[in-house]
# Entry
Amino acid sequence: MDWVHLAEKMKVTVTTVDEIAGGVEAVLLTVAARLAAWVAALPTVALVARAIRVVFALEVGLAWASAVALEVVGRAIVHAWLAAREWNAQKGKTDAAANERLLQVFCGVYFVSDFLLVGLLEVPRALAGEWVHLAALLFPLMQVVATVLTVERAAQYHREAAAEAAKAERAALRAERARVKQTARDAARDADKEESPAPEARQVARTRLDKRGFRREVARLNGELAPLVEKLRAPGANRAAVLNTWLDERGFAQVPPGTARGWVPVVLDAAGSDAGEAGDAARED
# Structure
């Protein structure tokens, strides 16, 4: 195996491994981003549960249940506030407005409660000289950030899903309109085909022969002159009409009215008739 083929195989292998690793990393980051906001609430929940247990002398289970309830209520309040804000931004003129200000007050009460319950035991120690205990207030601060982040991320997920659904609906509507228009065009085209008359046969200009050309044509078609001569010699025959019919059948223009006197003798002469017969034909015409 030469080095070129080996390098190509290694390149394909590296690309495949990189795609697999990228997919695994994307999954891990997605899971971590979803869990981070919830995990960030654990220190605050623990500190709030400790304060509730110490101040109100509750059992550990009840203290933790109270702290978790406070966290769940807080996220519900923040979610309601962001939903009301978005509703007021997108509602129609005739739609009722959501009470966004009241929900903002509830959010403030929730955040202040978090800070008070966490700092209830830590702030007195900080005031007593142990300033390091003020660091405990960072947990409810991060809890505020995590709560808003979680609710806003969920709202963004629903907004994107709604946007994709609206885009798919518009695409389906455009496709349906295009189908209806195409059906209408096809129906109109079929109706035109049924109603339009058949195209008229194209008129071809007929060649008008002079006497010299007529003699050449008669000589070329000498074998066909016997029936013509018989019709011309028939008693009472309209020789001009017979001659014009013969010309018309062969695609030539008819002789002008009143000129058969000069044409009929030409036919008879070309057919080998005698001069007397030609003269009689001319006189009869």
